[in-house]
Amino acid sequence: MINVDNNQEARAAILKSIRDHLSASAPHNAIHHDIKDALHQLHHRDGFHSTDQSPSVSLIDLFKERLEAVDGNCIIAAGEAEVIEALRTVLSGLRDTPLQARLVALSDAPLVQRLARHLEEDVEQLTVTPSAADLFAYDVGITAVQAAIAETGTLVLQSDRERHRLISLLPPVHIAIVESEQICGTLGEVLSALRSDGEELSPAITFITGPSRTADIELTLAIGVHGPQKLYVIVNTGPRLDVTG
């Protein structure tokens, strides 16, 4: 026997929860429109070209603003010494927290491995591309990126350019290193830039916007369920980091 009253009460509760969450999202929708207006102004500003090798400082600021709006952490560093210092600062700050920073997994990007040499005294273990099974034991994953989107504060990682997809997803903390010239205004600009080198896009492209979050369960926001609890992005605004060094 079906209890109609209970079904109706459950339906009413679900609809109320949806209405409440839609109402709560209204300020975020307004922010989205503000972002579109800001990007429109950037595109029409005299002398501004998002594909320029020296992107507008406003574009970098917009990326930082949007990343921090979704609980990401953005550190601006001017040159290699500041990038290394930023890495050390992040790892040091995690050491006395439940997230810790003892075991660090690295992508196979030469740049990441070279910078990590300066971190050997700061952590217990640095490992390049550990196995998927082993990655669950690591505290931090460090990767580079192939592009970033200012409009949404999003990182773009291509699977065939760098072995990093699981390293960016499984450890509780993800640290990404971004060159300022990799920041584009929109997704469309990123895709155009990735195709401009004449190579096919990777079969798997990962888009990361802030720490992992989901509202699958009772529409209640939860952080770190399907990925990292913390995301730190270090943007290098100085000379491009030397890959080989």
Q: What do you see in this structure?
A:
- With 245 residues, the protein is of the alpha/beta class.
- It has a single domain, classed as NagB/RpiA/CoA transferase-like (Rossmann fold, 3-Layer(aba) Sandwich), CATH 3.40.50.10420.
- 36% of the residues lie in helices and 20% in strands.
- Strand 10 (213-214) and strand 11 (222-223) form a beta hairpin.
- The longest helix has 40 residues, at 4-43.
Write the layout of secondary structure elements.
Blueprint: H1 4-43, H2 57-69, E1 73-77, H3 80-95, E2 103-106, H4 110-116, E3 125-128, H5 132-135, E4 140-144, E5 147-149, E6 154-158, E7 173-179, E8 183-184, H6 187-195, E9 205-208, E10 213-214, E11 222-223, E12 230-236
Parallel strand pairs: 1-12, 2-3, 2-4, 4-7, 5-8, 7-12
Antiparallel strand pairs: 5-6, 6-9, 10-11
Please supply descriptive tags for the structure shown above.
12 strands, alpha/beta, globular, 36% helix, 245 residues, Rossmann fold, 6-stranded parallel beta sheet, 6 helices, 4-stranded mixed beta sheet
> What is the percent of helical residues?
25-40%
Proportion of residues in extended strands: 15-25%
How many extended strands?
12
In the CATH scheme, the class would be Alpha Beta
Q: Tell me the CATH architecture.
A: 3-Layer(aba) Sandwich
Spell the H/E element sequence.
HHEHEHEHEEEEEHEEEE
**Given the C-alpha coordinates, what overall shape results?**
globular
- What structural category do the secondary elements indicate? alpha/beta
Per DSSP, the total helix count is 6
Mean pLDDT across residues: 80
Radius of gyration: 20 Å
Main sheet summary = 6 strands, parallel
CATH topology: Rossmann fold
Q: Low-confidence stretches at least 5 residues in length (pLDDT < 50)?
A: 38-54, 218-226
Termini Cα gap: 73 Å
